[in-house]
Description:
The chain is mainly alpha-helical. It has helices at 15-40, 48-73, 87-115, 138-172; strands at 3-4, 7-8, 122-123, 129-130. The protein has four helices and four strands, in the order E-E-H-H-H-E-E-H. Helix 2 (48-73) packs across helix 3 (87-115). The longest helix has 35 residues, at 138-172. The structure holds protoporphyrin IX containing FE.
Amino acid sequence: MAHTATGPAVTRYSPVSIGFHWMIALSVLATAALGIWLDGLGYYDPWQPRALWMHRAIGTSAFFLMLLKLFWRLYDRKPPLEKALTRFEAIAATATHHILTLAVLVLPITGYLVSTSSGSAVPLAFGLELPALVQVGNALRDGLMQAHVVIAYGLLALVGIHAMAAVKHQVLDGGQTLQRMLPGRRPLGDR
Length: 191
Ligand code: HEM
């Protein structure tokens, strides 16, 4: 196992980072699925209010989980990218991670601003709600709704590319990209 001046080289993400990663992934996918379902439901469908409530509540959780993850990162040691990646793969992976992070923060903000544009708070769970702090006008609300849709589908496409790249490096290239983000005690090789 390789060592650095401060101890053994970090080759896996920490259990807390792994927990954040999969909880965020799950909440983003669930929110997207609910959003797509919502789009197909008529306004008077009895499921519409429930689907909208779940969409907003789970989407808000994705936002706060991402904020918590970023704070956690300040104290956590992140494994460096695998040395076996080409220069292009390393740049693409880093850019994808930054864009995914930004999208998971910006997307819920656009949804929040659309939802509070009429001045009403967004009910979450356990009596919690998001207060209507800013009320945007109709034109801006429509623009934000369009941005919400574009960012949501862009995010889904990027999640697909990110997941396929991780599986390709793990399975086809014999790397450990996916394993680094899965729980396990055994240190991985310094590839
Ligand atoms: C990771 C978080 C989120 C994702 C991936 C996401 C994704 C989506 C998707 C795919 C749609 C359907 C777009 C279409 O095809 O028309 C949608 C609609 C919508 N989203 Fe989100 N969203 C997220 C967070 C939020 C949040 C936090 C809120 C509000 C607090 C919100 C409010 C809305 C609203 C009001 C709509 C329109 C619903 C309707 O058609 O009645 N979203 N979202």
